[in-house]
Amino acid sequence: MLLKNNIPFKYVFGKIKYEVLLVAVYTLIIVILHDRFNLKHMAIPLSVPMIMGTVISLLLAFRSNQAYDRWWEARTIWGAIVNDSRSFTRQVLSFVDDSAYESEEINHFRERMVRRQIAWCYALSQSLRGLDGKDGLEKHISKREVAYVSRFANIPMALLDLHARDLNYALKKGWLNEFQQVTLDQTLSRLCDAMGKCERIKNTVFPATYSLYIHFAMNFFILLLPFALIEYFGLIEVPLVVAIAASFLLIEKMAIHLQDPFDNKPTDTPMTTISRNIERDLKQLLNDHHLPETTQNVDHKFYVM
């Protein structure tokens, strides 16, 4: 996710540098041809690109709004994951028979569940970005559990399965009553629903024809623009056309990046940062003082992942 401050111009310009260069060269060629050969017939009425520009602006605004809705839905889902992870940990730590509080086995059970929930958050973020969901799990769960989940294509699903198995085990041992087990299972169901929603966003492609038609229309508008301005501005129209084209191109690029919030780009939903915050909160509930390092305030970074 891009932060408010310190977004470098190089990053912004880098998204459209080749397109801007082509527009500048194209416009300069038209100006030279017009001035050298006095081709008055090259000019077209300014109203033609103005009408096209208005229509394209509305289409780009609608497209950007739809792309932002996808990005915001992804962020909302991860906000729910934060809440449910905290609730799950609180329930695991409190829904145990007080008479057995000092039991080493129960304390191990609690710690195992909480650390596995931390692992689930990291595994889900890795999987959504197309990376290896097993990467880094050994820091949070046992080698036996890592070996178990490695058999599955969907690592987060396998971790939730281990959660469910442990809840059943706790119920049979009498550490949880049936009501507590159902409540914890409902929390797991919400986590599973959140995972499914993220996968839906990840696997649902933004309509390609819609993007393609707007892209073609915008390029046609940029091609016409120099012919409409040539009689009014002369050589000055080169930076003017470049500025107008850059505005449209940047809006289109912004929409393209926002429509895929799990693509491992700076504009992503900051799943790693959110997972790190979850790890910090859950470890503090465990009285574990080995907290993860934060990268949020690094001066040279203008985004968080």
UniProtKB/TrEMBL annotation:
<keyword id="KW-1003">Cell membrane</keyword>
<keyword id="KW-0813">Transport</keyword>
<keyword id="KW-0406">Ion transport</keyword>
<protein>
    <recommendedName>
        <fullName>Bestrophin</fullName>
    </recommendedName>
</protein>
<feature type="transmembrane region" description="Helical">
    <location>
        <begin position="232"/>
        <end position="251"/>
    </location>
</feature>
<feature type="transmembrane region" description="Helical">
    <location>
        <begin position="43"/>
        <end position="62"/>
    </location>
</feature>
<keyword id="KW-0812">Transmembrane</keyword>
<keyword id="KW-0472">Membrane</keyword>
<dbReference type="GO" id="GO:0005254">
    <property type="term" value="F:chloride channel activity"/>
</dbReference>
<dbReference type="InterPro" id="IPR044669">
    <property type="entry name" value="YneE/VCCN1/2-like"/>
</dbReference>
<dbReference type="GO" id="GO:0005886">
    <property type="term" value="C:plasma membrane"/>
</dbReference>
<keyword id="KW-1133">Transmembrane helix</keyword>
<feature type="transmembrane region" description="Helical">
    <location>
        <begin position="205"/>
        <end position="226"/>
    </location>
</feature>
<comment type="similarity">
    <text>Belongs to the anion channel-forming bestrophin (TC 1.A.46) family.</text>
</comment>
<dbReference type="Pfam" id="PF25539">
    <property type="entry name" value="Bestrophin_2"/>
</dbReference>
<feature type="transmembrane region" description="Helical">
    <location>
        <begin position="20"/>
        <end position="37"/>
    </location>
</feature>
